[in-house]
Each structure stands twice: as C-alpha cells, then as structure tokens.
Design a protein that fits this description.
24 helices, alpha/beta, 6-phosphofructokinase activity, transferase, 25 strands, seven-stranded mixed beta sheet, globular, 6-Pfructokinase_euk, 16% strand
Length: 771
C-alpha cells in the first residue's frame, strides 16, 4: 500500500469521519476516541461522535453530533467510554442498517471508525459490503437523491479492538487488557496478605469466557499455584495433581495457595470448572481453609493504565490515516500495535483466525488453540508450566554455579526477574547463587562499577566456581558487563557466559526498546499527573510544571506526556531553545481563552543544564502574569517505588527465564575438556526487546550504538511518537505520514495441509514478544 506525500493537515478537507464505541466497554476507549477526533480535526476533516454505539447510528438525530477539540478534553483518565455503548439488535437487521446508512449519507459521512470487539467489527464489515445496495434501496425509496448517493458511493471502515479479554487474533494487545490486569493484580496483592495471615487457599475467578489471557498472565505475574484456562483444560486426573501440588507448596513452608480460574474454564470433556467446584475439592481432599473471589465487572472499571492510553492514542492516529488513505479496493482493516510498531491488518482475516481458535477448542485440538492465540500466548503458557509445574531434576548439571546479581538503582520488577532466573536455573539443574549489594558485593569493595576491582571479582568467581553471570540492572549493569568483557584478555576467570537484563526506570539501556521497571514508573507519573490536573478543576487558569526522572533519557517524560495529555515535554534528545519556550507559553495563553483552562508541562531532569525546572517555572510565571498562575512538582524517588505493574512482573519473569535458558545452552557450547571457556563476543549479551522479538545482542556490538557521556542509546524508537503528542496538544506541526503502517496479512497463504496444522502468522500478542 503506497502512502501519499500529501500535506497531512489537508488530507481530510471535505471529508467526514464518524467514531463509535460498541459492545462491552474497555478502559482506554476514551483515549482512542480523543485521538481520532483531534487528529481528524488536524487533517481538516469533520469528526462526529456517534453516541450509544450502533443503536445511535440507527436512531440518528442527537445521537450523531459534531465533535470539537475541547469536547474530548479531560477524557484520557476516564475508564469506560464517554460516548456510550449499547448492544443493538436493530443493526443486525437490514432495515436497521438502512436507517444507519441514511443517517450517515445525510451528514456526508463516508468514513467510519469502530472501536469494539470482533462482533462489532464484523458488523461494520457487513455494513460496508452492503453499502452500495443500501444506497440503491434508499434512492428507490426516495429517501436520498442520486446526487447524495453519488457523493457517498463508498464507505471506508477502520476498526480498533476494545476488549479486556485480549481475545482478538492478529492484534497486538487489545484496548483495555492492560488496565484489566492492573485491577486483577491489585486484588491479588490484597488477597495475598490476608491469605498468608490465615494460611488460606484463595481461588480467584477472572473474566475470559472464551480466552484465558487474563487468567494466564495473572498466574504468571503473581506466581499462582495453578491456572485454569479454556484453551488448555487440565489433563485427566487433574484433581489429584492439583491437591498434591497444593500440599507440596505447604510442605515447603508456603503459608498460602493461589489458584486462578478463567470464567470459561472447563475439563477435557467440556464440562465447566467453576471456582466453587475447586473450593469443594480442596476442602474435601485437603481440609484447607479455602475462599473464593469472583472479580466480575471490577475488571472493566477504573482509570486506564498508561499503556492503554498510549495504545488508544496511537491507534486513533493510525485509524484516521488509514481511513483517509483508503481506496475502494482497500479491505476494511483493524489498526493495532505489534511490539512497538503500528500495524494495519485486514479485518476479516483477523476475525477468521479468532474463529479458528473457537473451532480448535470445540474440536478439542488444545495445542492448536494455544498456537492460534499467537506466539506470546504460547510462550506465556510454556513459561508458566515450567515455573509452576516442573520439579527440579534429581541430578545436577556439570555447570554448577550460575550467579544472579542486581546492579545500580532499584526498580519495580527486578524481583520477578530474579525469582524466574533462580527457579528456571534450579529446574535446569544449576546451583543458583545470589550476590547481595551488586558489584561491590561481588568484589567486596565499595564500588559501583567493576573496573577498579576487576582482580577481586575474578578471584571471587574462581573461589565460588561461578560458571556464568546474570546481571540485572540499568546503565551501570550494561557498563559493568562491558568492563567484565574487556577484562577477559587479562583474567581467564571472566571467560564465562554473561547476560545483562535491562532493569531501570530510565529505559536507557542500549539493545532494548523496553526495560523492566519503566512501565511501573510511567504509571506512577501518569497517575500523579491525573491528580495534579484534577486539583486544578476548581482553580481555573493554572499551569503545572512537573519534573520527571530518567537521567538524560526522555522516555518517561515523552510517554507520560502522551498518557497524561501534556502540553509539552522537554527532553535532552529533542533540543529546544528560548524560541520554543516562547512558543509554548503563547500556546498556553491561547489555550486559556478556550474552555480548557489548565496546562501540564513535563520536564526531564537533565534535558538542559541552563533551562532548569526553576527557570522554566519562573519564565512561565512571569509570562503568564494576569493570564495563568504556575505550580511546580519534582516527582523524585517516588518514580522508583511502588508495586510492579502486571507488565513489569510478566516482562521480568519472561526475561529471567529466557536469560537462564540461553545460559544453559551457551554453557554446553563452551564446555571443553572439563572446563568452561567463553571469550567470543556472542557469549556476553544484552537480552532486550527489539521491535517484535526478545533478542540477545553482544555487548561489544552495542558499544557503537551508545552515547557513553549521556548514558543513553544513540537512537530511540519512541522519539517518533513526539509529533503525535504535540498534535494532540493542538500544535500545528507536520506529521510524517511515510512512517505509517503498511497493510500486513494475518493468515498465511492456504496450502494443502490438514486444518489442525494451519498455523497463525499473526504479529505478537503483547508489547513484548519472544522469538
């Protein structure tokens, strides 16, 4: 699909777009609506709200209203959908769709953006296919003129998937899923403390009638003893296995058991397995004090997570571009993210693969059902099984000691990576060692990097017979790994496999698009910004200037700016001067003349040595005299604290697991003549997420990609998102449309193979993915 080089601010002139939300609500839908409206207006198009979903489309009248820039203000932090959603029987009948077509034609709307689940999107596609015949019938009935029919001869459809279940194949992560996981993990954390107090077993039932994604990721994130999902029912005799598992955990000293159940869980015969059934089984066979909690609609509620806001915003931008670039030959598409990349996928191919999962489950092809869900779902399942259900071997490997070490500042999710690395290491037959106090603990000297104490470190490695290193941390960990590699020439003890797992709120480690801990920090900043903005609700004309962490890396400031709806975010990577500051002040002066009388400015702590937070605060205060007043906040160390988000727990768990599995294979490769000797570049790597895969990149090769002075990578993928933040804040800047996604395909060309062997060629199903 070729992209136009047309000025994006003129692409929508003379065009009209309608946006509706349909089916079950999901947190983040409002972000998608806001972005669709604002980017539509930015392109010169008219944008209409359709209230109450398809019912509003059928009923017309006041249900279809022209949207303005201000009408989508203060929506980002709200859950659900402010334009309403409704189940609509009328739209299922041709007569209802004819009424909907009439309402659109009369307003000149030929572009429809639908945010909903697979049923809603299938309905939209049917509407599009019938469009020409609906117009013919409306002309015959005398309800529209030939001229009106000619002007509205083609309907473009773009879908965004809003569903907390993450049950739509082909998309990356559906809007609302991450927020639902936040709600579930909050409850699990609360339940864990009371369960430990009383030595109880807790059974938690989560949503997922046909998809076990929420249950599976929850089980991974909280280390549950057992999980029941519809895609993979437990084996025959599971009752005895479950009871043995729970009893073993208690015998090892655990004071609680946690069991996660998807609402659609069933046994191999297709009989439902409810939380009450499991409770009766545990009480009868083990006599454990057991409680059940059914979460229900609390999972749909609450404020959307930072990820869902960014996902909705990015998808809204992509949806508008897809609509305005569509031709009559372009198939209806869904827009989503895969890794950190925007993708456009043919709508009906995605619907077909989603139906294939249901068919596989109905035909009891359980392995196929897991594979059809996508590579990430399959890897989540395999990681969970390994961590929860595989017992350590009776015999040890030849390579006895694998060392896990945390380096630098702490961040949320480090513990998940350590736990996973240790457990997988023990399962692989290794003796796992943990170093307290980072490299200083390893050297027994008071240093943060190993260069000065390299000899002591090599002696410690020899003394404890350490055969490999897992280094978990931020830029210090990366630098430390490089220094250990450089020390190999002098100290043979350092010729062992090493892997660095990036874990830092700053997200500044070369070789990875995401670091463990950054998502938790981003959510902390976003929720703080929400509260600060809310505090201005009763005090009009106020601008807040907030300083974020990150060293010289502007990731947190930029992404929080997108998630919280900031007016500007100052960062080191995007240079700015006094003219830019002047323009930002003038922008806020103009904003105060609208209905939205508040401003939010983010500043990365090291963005500029002279334009400090105090300077910017003083400048805004002086220039805004009589128009707005200013307040400033320095968030500080609160960005490093807090309980890890579901993403950081899951990401840390999978990174720890993959690192140790890689080390196990690497040790076998480098074991020669009764000893370990690893000195090739690929024996010391950073494990990171790049675009769509978790990859191992040699530390030595990453040196060229590093700005060592400022401790950041030389290039960063997220810088391409900054124009979106500025456009959504009403800056008249250019958007590079050449970067927009091409249409991809979900289903491989069908060759002559039996149905059970058909595999899905979907992009990954989480914003981090394994190979």
């Amino acid at each position: 699909m070729s992209h136009t080089s047309m000025d994006p601010t003129k692409m929508g002139i003379g065009r009209s777009i309608a946006v509706l939300t349909s089916g079950g609500d999901a947190q983040g839908m409002n972000a998608a609506v806001r972005a669709t409206v604002r980017v539509g207006i930015y392109t010169g198009a008219k944008v209409y709200f359709v209230h109450e979903g398809y019912q509003g489309l059928v009923d017309g009248g006041d249900n279809i209203k022209l949207a303005t820039w201000e009408s989508v203000s203060m929506m980002l932090q709200l859950g659900g959908t402010v334009i309403g959603s409704a189940r609509c029987m009328d739209f299922r009948a041709r007569e209802g769709r004819m009424k909907a077509a009439l309402n659109l034609v009369k307003l000149g709307i030929t572009n429809l953006c639908v945010i909903g689940g697979d049923g809603s999107l299938t309905g939209a596609n049917q509407f599009r296919k019938e469009w020409a015949t609906l117009l013919v019938d409306l002309v015959k009935a005398g309800k529209i003129t030939d001229d009106e029919a000619r002007k509205s001869c083609h309907l473009n459809i773009v879908g965004m998937v809003g569903s907390i279940d993450n049950d739509f194949c082909g998309t990356d992560m559906t809007i609302g899923t991450d927020s639902a996981l936040h709600r579930i993990i909050e409850v699990v954390d609360a339940i864990t403390t009371t369960a430990q107090s009383h030595q109880r077993t807790f059974i938690l039932e989560v949503m997922g009638r046909h998809c076990g994604y929420l249950a599976l990721v929850t089980a991974l994130a909280c280390g549950a003893d057992w999980v029941f999902i519809p895609e993979m029912p437990p084996d025959e005799g599971w009752e005895g296995h479950l009871c043995r598992r729970l009893a073993d955990q208690r015998a090892r000293g655990s004071r609680l058991n946690v069991i996660i159940v998807a609402e659609g869980a069933m046994d191999r015969a297709g009989n439902p397995i409810s939380s009450e059934d499991i409770k009766k089984l545990v009480e009868k066979n083990l006599g454990f004090d057991t409680r059940t909690t059914v979460l229900g609609h609390v999972q749909r509620g609450g404020t959307p997570s930072a990820f869902d806001r960014i996902l909705g915003s990015r998808m809204g931008v992509e949806a508008v571009m897809a609509l305005l670039e569509a031709t009559p030959e372009t198939p209806a598409c869904v827009v989503s993210l895969s890794g950190n990349q925007a993708v456009r996928l043919p709508l009906m191919e995605c619907v077909q693969v989603t139906k294939d999962v249901t068919t596989a489950m109905a035909e009891k092809r359980w392995e196929d059902a897991i594979k059809l869900r996508g590579k990430s779902f399959e890897n989540n399942w395999n990681t969970y099984k390994m961590l929860a259900h595989i017992n350590p071997p009776d015999t040890k490997e030849l390579f006895d000691f694998v060392l896990a070490i945390n380096i630098g500042a702490p961040c949320a999710g480090m513990n998940a990576a350590v736990r996973s690395a240790v457990r997988i290491g023990i399962i692989q037959g290794h003796n796992m060692l943990a170093v307290h106090d980072g490299f200083e603990g390893l050297a027994q000297g008071k240093v943060f990097l190993p260069s000065e104490y390299i000899e002591e470190i090599s002696l410690t490695i020899a003394k404890f017979n350490i055969h490999s290193l897992v280094i978990i941390g931020g830029f210090e960990a990366y630098m430390g790994g490089l220094e250990l590699v450089q020390g190999r020439d002098k100290y043979e003890e350092l010729c062992i496999p090493m892997v660095v797992i990036p874990a830092t709120v700053s997200n500044n480690v070369p070789g990875s698009d995401f670091s463990i801990g950054a998502d938790t920090a981003l959510n902390t900043i976003t929720s703080t910004c929400d509260r600060i903005k809310q505090s201005a609700a009763g005090t009009k004309r106020r601008v807040f200037i907030i300083e974020t962490a990150g060293g010289y890396c502007g990731y947190l400031a930029t992404m929080a700016g997108l998630a919280a709806g900031a007016d500007a975010a100052y960062i080191y990577e995007d240079k700015f001067g006094i003219r830019d500051l002047e323009m930002n002040v003038e922008h806020l002066v103009q904003k105060m003349k609208t209905d939205v009388k508040r401003g939010l400015i983010l500043r990365n702590e090291n963005c500029n040595a002279n334009y400090t937070t105090d300077f910017i605060f003083a400048l805004y205060s002086e220039e805004g005299k009589g128009i707005f007043d200013c307040r400033k906040n320095v968030l500080g160390h609160m960005q490093q604290g807090g309980t890890p988000t579901p993403f950081d727990r899951n990401f840390g768990t999978k990174m720890g697991s993959k690192a140790v599995l890689w080390i196990t294979e690497k040790l076998k490769e480098v074991y020669r003549h009764g000893r370990i000797f690893a000195n090739t570049p690929d024996s010391a790597c950073v494990l990171g997420m790049k675009k769509r895969a978790l990859t191992f990149q040699p530390l030595a090769e990453l040196k060229e990609q590093t700005d060592f002075v400022h401790r950041i990578p030389k290039t960063s993928w997220w810088l391409k998102l900054r124009p979106i933040m500025k456009i959504l804040a009403k800056y008249n800047i250019s958007l590079d449309t050449s970067e927009h996604a091409h249409m991809e395909h979900v289903i491989k060309k069908r060759v002559s193979m039996p149905a059970p062997l058909m595999k899905k060629a979907c992009p990954p199903t989480k914003h981090e993915e394994e190979e």
